[in-house]
Write a structure and sequence with these properties.
The complex is a heterotrimer of chains A (about 250), B (about 250) and C (about 300). In chain A, helix 1 (about 10-60) packs antiparallel against helix 7, helix 1 runs parallel beside helix 8 (about 200-225) and helix 4 crosses helix 6. Chain A has a single domain (about 10-245), classed as MetI-like fold (Orthogonal Bundle), CATH 1.10.3720.10. Chain A has helices at about 10-60, 60-75, 80-90, 100-125, 130-135, 140-170, 185-195, 200-225; strands spanning about 230-235, 240-245. Helix content of chain A is about 75%, strand content about 0%. Chain A contains eight helices and two strands. The longest helix of chain A is centred in the N-terminal third of the chain and has 49 residues, at about 10-60. By secondary structure, chain B is α/β, with parallel strands linked by helices. Helices cover about 40% and strands about 25% of the residues of chain B. Chain B has nine helices and ten strands. In chain B, the strands form two sheets. Chain B has a six-stranded mixed sheet with strand order 6-7-8-3-9-10, with helices on both faces. In chain B, about 50% of the residues are buried. By secondary structure, chain C is of the alpha/beta class. Chain C folds into two domains: about 25-110 and about 215-305, 3-Layer(aba) Sandwich (D-Maltodextrin-Binding Protein, domain 2), CATH 3.40.190; about 110-210, D-Maltodextrin-Binding Protein, domain 2 (3-Layer(aba) Sandwich). In chain C, strands 1, 4, 5, 6, 7, 8, 9, 10 and 11 form a nine-stranded mixed sheet that branches. In chain C, a hairpin with a 2-residue loop joins strand 2 (about 40-45) and strand 3. Classes of the chains: A mainly alpha (about 250), B alpha/beta (about 250), C alpha/beta (about 300). Chains in contact: A-B, A-C.
């Protein structure tokens, strides 16, 4: 059975765009929720990811093995499942966590597993001599990690971390499933009022995310430039710096 | 009084015993050079002295304090021993100045301004005052090694260990580093150096120690070892490296 | 530089996490509703209105408390109220036994039945569409609604081979119906009428299934805030009384000329555009109302405006 596609008629498309235009401020305000979630989950992921990576590289079996298990668990479970677990799980026991917090934790822990991988690779890419030199000057292992290893590791991590950023930007919309009032949820106001504008509405959101991801990556690129050590090329996580003056 | 006493060090890696009972002493102000074929445990010996490696048997004393198996804070002990690596191992994310000042700040708790002043002095001492704000990647090998010597000096160590300090350098750059080391020796620094620079050995070493297969074969003043070695092997080895590396002043 | 970066990230995260709650001082209760679901809850330019929401606002004015209306996804709405995280639920909620075990219901304020929407040109009728005799053998409903459950309990359980497709929102079901992927959509009657205004040429109502569903407002079990008596009394003041008829069916007595009568006339019947226009015109009367007279002015304004 053929479906008439009014969307293709030009007049309707132009009217449609005008309608979407009216909803744009609301959409952008809802986008703020996505951005807040993004920042919160990245912060959680960063903090935990760093700790996990350090445990994996430097701690003995007692702490190192749980760290690897943690990473494996949170990299294996789908993001949506994690969201449901963190929201509907506690609900089973009568505890209602606000969707924003549940989403921050679920997506934050998941990101921490990926970030820990990035950081571990970066830490292991740093030549052993750095730690040896630091320790032979009397620095404790902790001091050497904080002052010598981590600053270099974070710089090395930036390109891969930019990837993780791009990935989780999109994941914020998954929080819709646990009821967070973010941009996709807001789109319902359009799609349930104007049934035939669904495609335009989602195209608009896609465009918004294009801009958001691009800005994020651009900012990280700027950060990379600012932190660049003169003379040293950052060849990504798996590469070492190349000394250009040799 | 002996500043450094190394007694009967044994070290094994896996099945192979790399150090089979090494003993010697260093008085304050002395400079001793360790030579020998590669793989004879020279680097391992140095690492045992500042406990980067732990010897299986034997002991090391620094200024009367036993350091190999002591329960006391190894970081404090290491702060008294400078170490210069073959690969320089400068901290690549810090400027030359920060490289030199970071240990006094973080390990000794020195204030930033004071440490910066101290670092500048040490950099000038090695002839690199004008490179204070350069990053290691912007420096030549010789310059990096000199910075790493300044870095060791900034901690006012009792003793500096040098692990083949010029082996990774282009021939043209070796001279500037040796010059710094000669001045250090003349200023009275206690130094233990693994090197093949015989010219350097001849000019400042109080003693040359020849090691092979994990033991000290012979040790004595450079003149004696060069002209009148007790062991055939010593003479052979010295002959070889003089041939290969030539003499440097 | 690095330290500033870390601090600003931590501050950003804290702002993000803390951004949620702004406490309002006076006696205020949170009302959750799955918006939009015309004509019970609607949205225009960032403002929420509709039958449910206007009634709850009016009840609050009469009872003397304030309400903070929040948009809440259907899948977590009832559980939010059940857990006490939200105080009132006003979202076309049908009162049935399993739900009443989790939350407490106010007096009923609406009788809804399920309507079945089909394509005009499908040649099907109510029975053939619902029993899977159509070209796709499938019907659609919004997930976790009484419409879907009715199909499971009464048609599938009776052995008819009909596929029930569940959608996260009912407009998605309607779109599939228009596209020919399913033969019918079952949903509450008022919402069905709304759907028709979007596709007047393609769709029609095949029939009404008398499911006798009554809507009520919900509060956490045990009514910890003591809101139910106040809401129930307010609804009487606003012009509706529920009474059991001799047939055993609950009936609504609506006072003539009351707020309630005018509100019903506003929301049930006129097309959405008219309702939106009326809201734009009259909304301040409701939002600044402090007494019953203000509320009745609002309702009158709305009822007149939709006739224009």
């Amino acid at each position: 059975m053929e479906v008439s596609s009014p969307i293709i008629e030009k007049r309707i498309v132009i009217e449609g765009i005008a309608v979407i235009g009216r909803y744009l401020p609301g959409l952008l305000q809802a986008l703020l929720t996505n951005v807040q979630l993004l920042l919160a989950l990245l912060a959680v992921g960063f903090a935990i990811g760093t700790v996990v990576a350090l445990l994996q590289v430097y701690a003995g079996h007692f702490l190192g093995v749980p760290a690897f298990l943690y990473e494996w668990v949170f990299r294996s479970i789908p993001a949506l499942v994690l969201l449901f677990l963190f929201y509907f799980g506690p609900l089973q026991f009568g505890v209602s966590i606000p969707p924003f917090f549940a989403a921050t934790l679920a997506l934050g822990f998941r990101s921490s597993a990926y970030q820990s991988q990035i950081f571990r690779g970066a830490i292991q890419a740093i030549p052993q001599g750095q730690m040896m030199a630091a320790r032979s000057m009397g620095m404790s292992r902790v001091r050497a990690i904080i002052s010598i290893i981590l600053p270099q590791a974070f710089r090395l991590s930036l390109p891969a971390w930019s990837n993780e950023f791009s990935s989780v930007v999109k994941d914020t919309t998954l929080a819709y499933a646990v009821g967070l009032n973010e941009i996709l949820r807001h789109a319902r106001f359009i799609t349930e009022r104007y049934y035939n504008l669904a495609m335009l509405a989602y195209l608009t959101i896609a465009l918004i995310f294009l801009v958001l991801t691009y800005s994020g990556n651009w900012s990280l690129g700027w950060l990379e430039k600012r932190l660049r050590i003169p003379g040293l090329e950052m060849a990504g996580v798996s590469g070492r710096g190349r000394n250009l003056s040799k | 009084m002996n500043l450094l006493k190394v007694e009967n060090i044994h070290k094994r890696y896996g099945k192979e015993e790399v150090l089979k009972g090494v003993s010697f002493e260093l008085k304050r102000g002395e400079t001793k050079i360790v030579i020998g074929p590669s793989g004879t445990g020279k680097s391992t010996l140095l690492r045992c002295i500042n406990r980067l490696s732990l010897p299986d048997k034997g002991q090391v004393w620094l200024g009367g304090e036993e350091i190999t198996h002591s329960k006391s804070n190894i970081n404090q002990l290491r702060a008294k021993i400078g170490f210069v690596f073959q690969d320089f191992n400068l901290f690549s994310h810090l400027t030359a100045l920060k490289n030199v000042s970071i240990a006094p700040i973080k390990v000794k708790g020195m204030k930033k301004e004071e440490a910066a002043k101290l670092a500048m002095e040490e950099l000038e001492r090695v002839g690199l005052g004008d490179k204070a704000d350069a990053y290691p990647a912007q420096l030549s090998g010789g310059q990096q090694q000199r910075v790493s010597i300044a870095r060791a000096l900034a901690m006012s160590p009792k003793l500096i260990l040098f692990d083949e300090p010029t082996s990774a350098l282009d021939p043209e750059l070796i001279g500037e580093v040796l010059e710094v080391m000669i001045n250090l020796a003349k200023d009275g620094m206690t130094m233990l150096v693994i090197s093949h620079e015989m010219g350097f050995a001849r000019s400042v070493a109080d003693e040359v120690i020849f090691m092979e297969h994990g033991v000290i074969v012979e040790q004595g003043p450079p003149q004696q070892l060069f002209s009148n070695p007790k062991h055939r092997r010593t003479g052979e080895f010295l002959h070889k490296i003089t041939e290969l590396y030539g003499e440097t002043n | 530089m690095k330290r500033k970066l870390v601090i600003s990230m931590v501050v950003l995260a804290m702002v993000a996490l803390g951004g949620g709650g702004l406490a309002v001082a006076q006696e205020t209760y949170t009302v959750v509703s799955d918006i939009p679901w015309p004509p019970f809850e609607m949205e225009l330019e960032g403002e929420f209105f509709g039958f449910d929401l206007d009634v709850i606002r009016a009840s609050a004015v009469v009872a003397g408390f304030k309400v903070d209306i929040q948009n809440c996804e259907w899948s977590i709405l009832v559980s939010s109220v059940q857990a006490g995280a939200k105080d009132i639920g006003a979202s076309g909620l049908t009162d049935f036994r399993e739900r009443a075990e989790k939350v407490d219901f106010s007096n009923h304020y609406w009788l809804a039945n399920q309507a079945v929407v089909i394509r005009k040109d499908s040649g099907l009728n109510l029975v053939s569409a619902m029993t899977g005799k159509g070209p796709t053998g499938a019907v659609g409903a919004q997930r976790a609604t009484t419409g879907g459950w009715w199909v499971e309990d009464n048609i599938q359980a009776a052995g008819f081979n009909v596929e029930l497709k569940q959608y996260s929102t009912y407009p998605l079901a309607i779109l599939d119906l228009v596209a020919g992927r399913i033969d019918a959509v079952i949903q509450d009657e008022p919402a069905s009428i709304s759907s028709l205004t979007a596709f007047p040429d393609e769709l029609t109502i095949a029939g009404i299934i008398n499911t006798n569903e009554y809507f009520g407002f919900i509060v956490p079990k045990g009514d910890p805030n003591g809101l139910l008596p106040r809401i129930n009394d307010a609804m009487v003041v606003l012009g509706v009384k529920t009474a059991m008829a001799s047939t055993g069916v609950e009936e609504f007595e609506i006072t003539e000329g009351s707020f309630w009568e005018n509100l019903v006339a506003t929301y049930f019947g006129p097309p959405i555009e008219k309702i939106e226009a009326a809201w734009s015109k009259c909304k301040n009367l409701l939002l600044s109302a402090t007494c019953l007279e203000d509320l009745e002015n609002y309702a009158r304004c709305m009822a007149d405006a939709v006739k224009e």
